[in-house]
């Protein structure tokens, strides 16, 4: 897969099942912090909508927009600079693509635990969607 800046555009949602499996692979079953990852409030998915210059986070009904820009990309990943917010305190993201519909990022918790959080694509590029719906609207109007 060749990653381009357009690869990230669209709406992505945290893959809770894959992320939790990753966490369990690295923490002992009796680890005192493991239960925190299975609390009901942690099982609410984070949704991120990427546009060419911003991200829109949706989590627990709250939406936060932040500036976003791609700094570099290679065959399998891209590096981006993201404005920090209440929902994100990491200004640089290294996004690793497993496919065009799945990526992971590293999360570094304040107690020293580092894990991979996985995301799956739930819809395509907002720009492409808007263009597609406009052309469909024109086709419908032309037929009527």
Explain what the structure shows.
The protein has 144 residues and is an alpha+beta fold. The chain has a single domain (5-143), classed as Lipocalin, CATH 2.40.128. It is 20% helix and 40% strand. The chain is built from 2 helices and 8 strands. The protein has helices at 16-26, 126-143, and strands spanning 10-14, 47-50, 54-59, 62-73, 77-82, 92-99, 102-108, 114-123. It has an 8-stranded antiparallel barrel. The chain is globular and about 40 Å long.
Low-confidence stretches: 127-144
- How can the largest sheet be summarized? 8 strands, antiparallel, barrel
> How many individual β-strands?
8
| Average pLDDT over all residues | 85
Please give the count of helices: 2
Q: At the first level of CATH, what is the class?
A: Mainly Beta
Reading the helices and strands in chain order gives: EHEEEEEEEH
Shape: globular
Give the radius of gyration: 17 Å
Helical content class: 10-25%
Briefly note the structural class of the backbone.
alpha+beta
N-to-C CA distance: 42 Å
Query: Architecture in CATH?
Result: Beta Barrel
Beta-strand content bin: 35-45%
Instruction: Tell me the domain tally.
Output: 1
**Strand adjacency order, main sheet:** 1-2-3-4-5-6-7-8
Report the CATH topology name: Lipocalin
Task: Spell out the blueprint of helices and strands.
Elements: E1 10-14, H1 16-26, E2 47-50, E3 54-59, E4 62-73, E5 77-82, E6 92-99, E7 102-108, E8 114-123, H2 126-143
Antiparallel strand pairs: 1-2, 1-8, 2-3, 3-4, 4-5, 5-6, 6-7, 7-8
Keywords summarizing the entry:
144 residues, alpha+beta, Lipocalin, eight-stranded antiparallel beta barrel, 8 strands, 20% helix, globular, disordered C terminus
